[in-house]
Structures are given as structure tokens and as C-alpha cells.
Automatic annotation (TrEMBL):
It comes from the Eukaryota. It comes from Notodromas monacha. One of its GO terms (cellular component) is Golgi membrane. This is Polypeptide N-acetylgalactosaminyltransferase. One of its GO terms (molecular function) is polypeptide N-acetylgalactosaminyltransferase activity.
Length: 312
């Protein structure tokens, strides 16, 4: 479908709800440009956002570039810029996390800097490189895990990924999922299992320790994905952890140290946050002002407004 008032725009409509991953693959298959840019629908590109994404790819087609993701408030649409930047990462439950920018990269700001893992929604990639990597794994369903699969594949198979501070795209972070489960069960667990089996080698065991049910999940046919890894002579996940995400285990240990202090409902953890047991909720204050109320918010393991000290 081609809108009359936008002659260069093509709209691809799928016959059924297929989820984010397969929808992106469908769009990529009909794209004609040398570079494919993926953006979430609930995002807004800022001024001059495109050239900083294209420049690194022009120098090296195996470089994947992510913009800085600014925040658009879910209720007011107020736009808040991200200032300091961070590198993408993950914990061993496969929750997306962030690592500090390396000191040498801070000195070179605003030049693009390497990042182990993308947030997932917004990035630019050479079309040739995307398809050489096999695109997204078509066995991944709806959404979840695709950012890890593509990030690991990019790094382990000879590419690199950078964040470009001069490219700004605002993103609406929704407070709830507006779409119900399409009736295919817990697809995210299966997605995570596929990624772990194909790309993580012996490190998948750390995921299974924290998510024991993953061991018994059938990931489906992985022959095509394993063939891609063999064809491209991709490096091991150990290489990825030692050369790319070398500081991740210090921040997000594969085996978490014991809590510093524990009560019936709350624990002071290794990350120096106070969290509700069995839930990923931490005591949080919105600012450092005296008298601020203490709230419960999602644990981010970055200290700051969730940093607590326990004196004995």
C-alpha cells in the first residue's frame, strides 16, 4: 500500500497479528534502501537525528548505531532529554540493564561509543549486514529477547554496536501493555531459551539457575540459527563477556552474593538497595530533599535514588 501524499512511503499490512519481531522482518524484506532504520511506533525523532546514525555505517557496514533515547511522558507527552548516556546490558534473568559509559568514552563525547546490548526498539543497520546475519530469528514470537539475539549476533559475528549521542529520539515508555496475549502461552520464556541455546554457550547455565523452568522449555527448531553462527564463524559468548561486556559481571553478578541484611519482608541486597522479597521492587525517593516520601519502584541496581546504607 502506498499513500498518495507520501510517494516514498510504503505501508505493509499483515493479515494477522504477528507481533513486533515478525512485523519488523516483513518491513525489512520490502525495504529498498542501503540502510534499514527500526523505530518503535511510539517514538518521535528529534532535529537532525538521522546523519549521526548513518555516518558510522558509511565508514563500516558492520557497525550498528543506536540513538540516544529520550523520554516522552506517558500521560503528558513532556519531552525529557537523556543527559549522561549509558551502555546497554542485561542481568542474568534477562532484564535489560545499563552500565556506565567508560571513562575513555566520556572524554570523547559526543562521539559514538561502544555498547554491549541495544535497548531494542531504535537502531540503524546496513541492509546487507542485517541479512548477512539472518535478520531477526523468525522463531522468536511477538516481542522479548530479540534485542539480545541481535546484539549477541552482531558482536560475536564480527560487527560492533555503538550509541550516537548526537542522534536523539524520544520514546513513550508505556505503563502497561495495551495488547492482550494472543493465546500462544508464555512466548517470552521460549524466546529467551532460543537466544540462550544458540548464542550463550555455557553461560546459559546462569540464566537457568535463576529461571529453572527454562531448562524444560522446548525452544523449537534451532538448526537455521546454529547454521548462521557456524557459517559466519562467530566467536564464543565467553569472548563477548571478556572483550565487550567485561564489566557486566561486577555490576550484575551471574551468581548474586548474599544479602547484607534480611528481614521477613525486605532485604538490603548486594546492590545496596532495599527490595521487597520475591518482587523486583525497591525503596525509592524521587529526590534528595528532606522529607521526601519513600516509594516502591522497579529496582534498577544503579544506586542513586535507591542507594541505602546499613551501619552495624
Amino acid at each position: 500500500m502506498q499513500p498518495a501524499h507520501l510517494p516514498k512511503v510504503r505501508i505493509v499490512r499483515l493479515k494477522q497479528r504477528s507481533g513486533l519481531i515478525l512485523a519488523r522482518l516483513a518491513g525489512a524484506k520490502v525495504a529498498k534502501g542501503n540502510v534499514i532504520i527500526f523505530l518503535d511506533s511510539h517514538s518521535e525523532a528529534n532535529v537532525n537525528w538521522l546523519p549521526p546514525l548513518l555516518d558510522p555505517i558509511a565508514e563500516d557496514k558492520r557497525t550498528v548505531v543506536c540513538p540516544f533515547i529520550d523520554v516522552i511522558d506517558f500521560e503528558t507527552f513532556e519531552y525529557t532529554a537523556q543527559d549522561e548516556g549509558a551502555r546497554g546490558a542485561f542481568d542474568w534473568k534477562f532484564s535489560y540493564k545499563r552500565l556506565p559509559v567508560l571513562p575513555e568514552d566520556e572524554k570523547n563525547m559526543p562521539k559514538p561509543f561502544k555498547s554491549p546490548v541495544m535497548a531494542g526498539g531504535l537502531f540503524a543497520i546496513s541492509a546487507e549486514w542485517f541479512w548477512e546475519l539472518g535478520g531477526y530469528d523468525p522463531g522468536l514470537q511477538i516481542w522479548g529477547g530479540e534485542q539480545y539475539e541481535l546484539s549477541f549476533k552482531i558482536w560475536q559475528c564480527g560487527g560492533k554496536m555503538v550509541d550516537a549521542p548526537c542522534s536523539r529520539v524520544g520514546h513513550v515508555f508505556r505503563k502497561f501493555n495495551p495488547f492482550p496475549n494472543p493465546g500462544i502461552g508464555d512466548y517470552k520464556r521460549k524466546n529467551f531459551k532460543r537466544v540462550a541455546v544458540v548464542w550463550m554457550d555455557e553461560y546459559a547455565e546462569f540464566l537457568y539457575r535463576l529461571r529453572p523452568k527454562y531448562r524444560n522449555i522446548d525452544p523449537g527448531n534451532l538448526s537455521e540459527q546454529k547454521a548462521i553462527r557456524e557459517r559466519l564463524k562467530c566467536k564464543s559468548f565467553r569472548w563477548f563477556m571478556e572483550e565487550v561486556a567485561f564489566d557486566l559481571p561486577e555490576k550484575y553478578p551471574p551468581i548474586e552474593p548474599p544479602d547484607f541484611a534480611a528481614g521477613e519482608w525486605l532485604s538490603l541486597t548486594y546492590y545496596k538497595d532495599i527490595r521487597l522479597k520475591e518482587w523486583n521492587l525497591c525503596m525509592d525517593v524521587e529526590s534528595g530533599n528532606d522529607g521526601e516520601p519513600v516509594l516502591l519502584d522497579t529496582c534498577h541496581c544503579l544506586g542513586g535514588n535507591q542507594l541505602w546504607k546499613y551501619d552495624v
